[in-house]
Amino acid sequence: MLECIDDKIDIHICGERLPDVEYINSLPGITLESIDAPTEQDQKTYRGAWDDIISEAKKRFNLSIRTKLNECREHNKHCDYDALFCEVGNADLLVLPWKYMVAIVLLEYRIYSTRINRYTLFDRDKAIELIKHYRQLYEDSVKESMLMLNIDSCCLDCAGNPQFVTWLP
User: Fold this and answer.
1) Structure pTM?
2) Which secondary structure element, helix H or strand E, spans residue 130, and what is its range?
3) Please, where are the H alpha helices in 37-123?
């Protein structure tokens, strides 16, 4: 499921930033502390929570972009979606919507965490507003990405019987 963008989003902790990586905590309202805040006991550290967040976001993102592609573009329904989305150029178009999807799931984890702390209790309304904001950014960016995707590899097969025939006298 879209392994080509798996490592494109991460958490910046300290030190050098990698040029090909988008950092989730570069978004307004998302800090390293707020990522650690919803960590449940079985997740041990923020990395355990992060892995769960990425796993859930990946499922939602995969379904969402396939649905959006089917709404926006006419293509062969039997195309290999992973190959299409991971083509050179196409993967880059999906990084920003992927980042927003991860932010949405992260903020939902904050809201529904059983841990009680500033982020899960007092900043709940802020998290709800941020979810709305990032959901709108997600919708806008995925719509634009779908329009710019190169779908040559799964274009419609135009061969076969024509639907209309013009008869000349």
Assistant:
1) 0.83
2) helix 124-148
3) 46-72, 81-85, 90-112
